């Protein structure tokens, strides 16, 4: 009887390498893409205001001169437009665009209000214009000196300011920006925001 040792067949390492590769290759690719790949740029058409300005610092009042509380100032998102005693054609166009943008927000329109902020007592023809064409607008009052921190960097005061429901004035849109671009920014914010 001969003493022969039977050799076991060699196992292939291929399945092991395939298994390891199925875990390692995606991880390496993800790592490389994260650090070296193209990243989408998040662009907005308006300008972010940094640091944000608290709306209560503007000392906004009602028509009787009574200071408005934070709850009165921030029930929803608001688009503010500051104007003096008169409203020229540019101002009228801006107010019209504000109204139309509010309507064009569609399913989001209940979350946004537009505000006419008077820096002076409006003239009779301006008041008449508001009463006939802008009844949905919220009207508040303040003085020009109260908004200097807000308008200091704006060469043109005809600007739309966006205020979130926490009372932060956080974005501004120059009047010459197309309304559809303003809408795009606001819709994007409302889509991701759970407040207001």
Structure description:
By secondary structure, the chain is of the alpha/beta class. It has a single domain, classed as Glutaredoxin (3-Layer(aba) Sandwich), CATH 3.40.30. Helix content is 36%, strand content 19%. It is built from six helices and six strands; from the N terminus they run H-E-H-E-H-E-H-E-H-E-E-H. It has a six-stranded mixed β-sheet, covered by helices on one side. The longest helix is centred in the N-terminal third of the chain and has 23 residues. The protein is elongated and about 105 Å long.
Quick structural overview:
The chain has 196 residues and is an alpha/beta fold. The chain has helices spanning 14-36, 70-73, 89-104, 124-133, 148-151, 179-192; strands spanning 47-54, 77-83, 112-118, 138-141, 159-163, 168-174.
